[in-house]
Amino acid sequence: MPPSSWNSFAKINSSIPGLVLSPYQIKYEYLRCNSMLDRAQWNSTERSAVISQVVTAASALLRAATDFIQLDTDTKSKLKIEREFVSCFYIRDEMNGYRDANRYFSRYLDQHSNFKFLWI
């Protein structure tokens, strides 16, 4: 997810861990969260490519985690990273950039779970 989306979680609970994927041997330094300098201009091809890369990376992490805890094969086969869920972090509001991703994220969770979120 973009750093600004993770920052939205961190504002609520700073103990939430985050993971930034970057090219090998590249130092990641990001000083602007929720800023205009987050990737503000995506075309549909770039957005789709990034979402696919995030889904692939998250799926690999999920497989590694389930292997590590030795989860049974049947349960593993039921776990997946949903592209629609990942996409909600890459919805851009023309006025507010990625800040409104929280709104789309909470709507997604409301539609796919039995609990509601209130974003401040």
Plain-language structure description:
With 120 residues, the protein is mostly helical. The chain has one domain. Helix content is 48%, strand content 0%. The protein has 5 helices and no strands. It has helices at 3-12, 44-68, 73-78, 83-87, 101-112. The longest helix is centred in the middle third of the chain and has 25 residues, at 44-68. The chain starts with a helix and ends in an 8-residue tail after the last helix. Pfam families: Nicastrin (PF05450).
Provide tags for this entry.
mainly alpha, 5 helices, disordered C terminus
Short summary of the structure?
It holds the Pfam family Nicastrin. The chain has 5 helices and no strands. By secondary structure, the protein is mainly alpha-helical.
Topology at a glance:
Blueprint lengths: L2 H10 L31 H25 L4 H6 L4 H5 L13 H12 L8
Distance between the termini: 20 Å
Helix content: 40-55%
How many distinct folded domains?
1
Q: Can you count the beta strands?
A: 0
Largest sheet: none
Q: Compute the CA-based radius of gyration.
A: 16 Å
Beta strand %: under 5%
Count of individual helical segments: 5
Could you say which structural class the secondary elements and strand pairing correspond to?
Answer: mainly alpha
Shape: globular
Question: What letter string, H or E per element, gives the SSE order?
Answer: HHHHH
Return residue spans where pLDDT drops below 50 for at least 5 consecutive residues.
95-99, 116-120
Q: What average pLDDT do the residues reach? A: 71
Pfam families: Nicastrin (PF05450)
